[in-house]
Amino acid sequence: MFDKLHEECGVFAIYGHPEASNLAYLGLYALQHRGQESAGICSSEGRDIHCHKAMGHVADIFTPEVLADLPGDRAIGHTRYSTAGDTVLANAQPFSVTCNKGRIAVAHNGNITNAGELRRELEREGSIFQASSDTEVILHLVARSRERTLAEALREALLELDGAFSLVFLSQDSVIVARDPNGFRPLAIGRMELPEGGTAWVFASETCAFDLINAVYVSDVEPGEMAIAGPQGLQRERFAPQRARSQCVFEHVYFSRPDSIVFGRSVQHSREMMGRLLAREHGVDADVVVPVPDSGVAAALGYSSESGIPFRHGLIRNHYVGRTFIEPSQSIRDFGVKLKLNPVRHLLAGKRIVLVDDSIVRGTTSRKLVRMVRNAGAAEVHLRVSCPPTISPCYYGVDTPDKNELIAARHSVEEIRQFVEADSLGYLSLEGLRQAVEDARREYCYACYTGDYPTELIQIEDLMAAKPVR
Ligand code: AMP
Fold first, then answer.
1. Is any atom of ligand 1 closer than 6 Å to the C-beta of 251?
2. Phi, psi angle pair for 191, to nearest 5°
3. Strands across the sheet with 288-291, in order?
4. What is the bridge-based pairing of β-strands 95-99 and 102-109?
5. Which residues, 6 or more positions from 416, have their beta carbon under 8 angstroms from its beta carbon?
6. Which parts of 14-114 fold into alpha helices (H)?
7. Are strands 95-99 and 74-81 parallel, antiparallel or unpaired?
8. Do the two domains 10-244 and 261-453 of this chain adopt the same fold?
9. Topology of 261-453 in CATH?
C-alpha cells in the first residue's frame, strides 16, 4: 500500500544572459500548462539571490516592476500545479536558503519517493525542517555534505534520492541542473548566442520554452547527468551510473505541449501516431471525428487521417478558463466541463461521432462530454481514448488520483462504456502506445497503465511524512 504526492511542474534555468529574469519569465510563460497554481523566479548577479514567487499565473505575477527587482545574468524559475488542500504560497518554488555552501535556490519537477526516510535520518542527525517537502530534503542533504561547493555536495546528495527529479539549482556563481537516473521527467538543454559575443545556457522542462526566446535545443540532460553552467561554460558529467530508462509516457500522451520535443521526440508526432493506431485497433463506421479540445486534437487528427473519416471541431473551447482538472471539488469540476466546452450543433446533429480524448481518469469528464455531444443531436457517440486504461496512480510526479478513484482500476471497459454512456468505447492498447512513441528499446514508464513500477517504492508513512507542503 502506497500513497502518492501530487506534483506537476515546469522548471526553467538560464546562465549568462543580461536579461536572465525576463527570459525566465518568458520561459515559464511557455511552460504555464505544466502548472497554474503558483510560479516563482530567483535570480543572481553573483553576490546575492533575489526571489519572487506568488500564487497565480506567470503573466499576472511577473510585472515589469517585479522583474526589475530580479537582477543578474542567471536565474531559475518554477511553475507549480497542485491538488486541493495545499494551495498555499509556502509551497511555491523555487526554495532558497543560506547554508555553508552560500546562498542557494532550487526548483524541482518530480517526486522523491524516499523523502520520508531521508528526512527521518536527517532529523536524527540534527537537521531542523521548516516544512516537510521532499525538495527541502535535498537542501538539507546539500547543507550536511562536508564538500565545499554546491556541485561537490550535489555529487553526493543526488545519489541518495530515489524517484523522479528534474532539478535546477542557482548558486552565487553557477546554475546546476540534474535529472534522475531513470529519466522520469524531461529536462532539455538549449543555447543562445549573444549579439555582444558569448553564449547563454538555458534549461527547461520542454523545448517550447526555447522557441519563445530563440534558444536552440542542444540535447536533453541525460538521465543520471548533472550539468553546470558557470564562468567556464557548460560542463556535463554523470553523477550516477547508467540505469534502465523509464521516461514518463504520459508526457507524450497528455502533459507536454505538442510543439515540444520531449525525450528527443516530437510530442505532436507521437500523438498523431496514437490516433492512427487507435483507428486501426478500434475502427468504427462513423461520419465525423471530433476531438476533445485541446488534449484530444492531435490524436483525433491521426484517427481521421488513418480512417478517412473527416475531422471537425465539434466542440469549441473557451480558452479563458483554466483546465477543468484543476478545480478542487467534484461539483466544480463537473460544472467546469460546461464552462470550458460548448458543442457545435450544426456539425453534430444527426451524425455518428467518433469522440477522441487523451485519457479517462475518473470518467466524470467523459460522461459529461458524451452527454453534451448527444444532447447536441448526435445519432451515435463512439468514444476513443489515445492511451490504455489508467489503472494505477503515479508516484513520479503526475497527478493521478488514488487508485479507488481511477475508474479503470475497478471496472471493465464495458462497465466504463456504460458509465460514460457511449455507444462504443475503445482504448489504445499498451502495445499501440509503445509503438506510437517508438519505444523499441523499452525506455518509457507505463506504470499508470500496468501497475508495474520501475523503482522500489517505500511505505505509505514515508510519503505521508513528505506530503503536507507539496
Ligand atoms: P476525468 O476522467 O473526469 O477524471 O478527467 C479526464 C480528463 O482529464 C481528460 O480529458 C484528460 O485530458 C484530463 N487529464 C488526465 N490526466 C490529467 C492530469 N494528470 N492533469 C490534468 N488533467 C488531466
1. no
2. -135, 155
3. 288-291, 352-357, 380-385, 424-427
4. antiparallel
5. 360, 363, 389, 407, 408, 425
6. 20-30, 58-61, 64-68
7. unpaired
8. no
9. Rossmann fold (3.40.50)
Alpha-carbon span 249 to 337, nearest angstrom: 25
Query: Rounded CA gap, 150 and 244, in Å?
Result: 27
Does residue 296 sit in helix, strand or coil?
A: coil
- Give the three-class secondary structure for 89: helix
The SS3 of residue 402 is: coil
pLDDT digits (tens, 9 = 90+) for 251-292: 999 999 999 999 999 999 999 999 999 999 999 999 999 999
Chain position carrying cell 549573444:
194
DSSP per-residue codes, 223-289: TTEEEEEETTEEEEEESS------EETHIIIIIS-TTSEETTEEHHHHHHHHHHHHHHHS----SEE
Q: Percent of the chain beyond pLDDT 70? A: 91
pLDDT at 132: 59
pTM score: 0.93
Dist. CA 242–CA 179, nearest whole Å: 12
Q: Which residues are catalytic?
A: 9
User: What is the residue extent of each domain of the chain?
Assistant: 10-244, 261-453
Q: Cell 549579439 identifies what position?
A: 195
CA distance 357 to 174: 43
Look up the CATH superfamily of 10-244. Aminohydrolase, N-terminal nucleophile (Ntn) domain (3.60.20.10)
Q: For a pocket test of ligand 1, which of 271, 361, 398, 428 has the largest count of ligand atoms closer than 8 A to its C-beta? A: 361
Look at strands 166-171 and 102-109 and give their pairing: antiparallel
- Write out pLDDT tens, residues 283-322: 999 999 999 999 999 999 999 999 999 999 999 998 877 5
pLDDT digits (tens, 9 = 90+) for 150-180: 999 999 999 999 999 999 999 989 999 999 9
| Gap from CA of 357 to ligand 1 centroid (Å) | 9
In order, the DSSP letters of 318-365 are -TTS--GGG-SSHHHHHHHHHHHEEE-HHHHTT-EEEEEES--SSSHH
Is ligand 1 within 6 A of the CB of residue 314?
no
**Element containing residue 161 per DSSP (H, E):** none
